[in-house]
Amino acid sequence: MNLTNCTRATEFILVGLPSVWGMENMIFACVFLLYLLCLMGNGLIIVMVILDHHLQKPMYFFLSNLSCIDIGHTTSFIPKLLVNHLSANNSICFYCCITQLFFYFFFGVTEFFIITLISLDRYLAICHPLRYSTIMTSEVCLKLAMAAWFGGLFSILYQEVLTANLPYCISNVINHFYCDEGPLLKISGGDTHVIEALGFLLTVVVIMSSLLFTLVSYLFIICTILRMPSTTRQQRAFSTCASHLVVVCILYGSVFFVYLRPNVKDSSFSMTKSVSILYTMVAPALNPFIYTIRNNEVKDAVRKLLERKTPHLIASAFVEK
Known about the structure:
Belongs to the G-protein coupled receptor 1 family. This is Olfactory receptor. GO terms for molecular function: G protein-coupled receptor activity; olfactory receptor activity. It is found in: Cell membrane. With 321 residues, the chain is mainly alpha-helical. It has one domain (11-298): Rhodopsin 7-helix transmembrane proteins (Rhopdopsin 7-helix transmembrane proteins), CATH 1.20.1070.10. The chain is built from twelve helices and three strands. It has helices at 24-51, 58-75, 78-87, 94-127, 129-135, 138-164, 181-186, 193-226, 231-259, 270-292, 296-307, 310-320, and strands spanning 11-14, 91-93, 173-174. The chain has a three-stranded mixed sheet. Helix 1 (24-51) packs antiparallel against helix 2 (58-75), helix 4 (94-127) packs antiparallel against helix 6 and helix 9 runs antiparallel to helix 10 (270-292). It starts with 10 loop residues before the first strand and ends with a helix.
């Protein structure tokens, strides 16, 4: 195709969520509810970790990072999706689309690094409890978290710059409910082989290594649990590991299905959109509940937070003034 006189598209049209006739409003309500659950659940974890000194530990520090990522990840596209549904206008400007694409992958890749750090933290806490406090100091945790965030940024930066500079002349219709790499490459008119190779390499190197490290960590954790003399402690530890592995299965399984393909440009996106809902909406909404539902420290922190009497605090503040 001759792209010499190509006029780049100034806006794209998002096809939207998988359509089921007569259920559009119900689907909208479900997406809105999942987004609210994500904001409330993850926001509550962040607030509790900040306010309750009992939760200012490595595990909850990494969990609050995961909550920030889940809020950022969903906010990168769900508000636009909801606005488009209400206005019946599925357009998105070119630069808005590229910005959405960047933040979507930035938060997405960083999430895998943070989940890996959570598994590392649990491995050290369960398998090396005597050395845990000397290894996972506040300074080490901060450096690991910063490495995860910067790793997520630099992993996707070059690929997204290349994607932004492609000529989009074939069509301006994106067969997805957000700006994703595959649908964008499909409507581009340039050579996408380098970008596809980088995306495939990112999936294999970053995500596969993250999954391998997480699974090996939990394998050592399970072996250590089996050697525990107390049955009660075994059951408690197993229930915690099982809930964490549910997150791992949902997240990694859906991402592998969507992105672990050498040629995403020629893929069919009908099934991809349905699977994407799992890790873009369902997993972020469930993460705070899965990670904390059996955690007594978090339950105590929530109870203390709910028992605080706001009027009394306001009155005390005025007295102090």
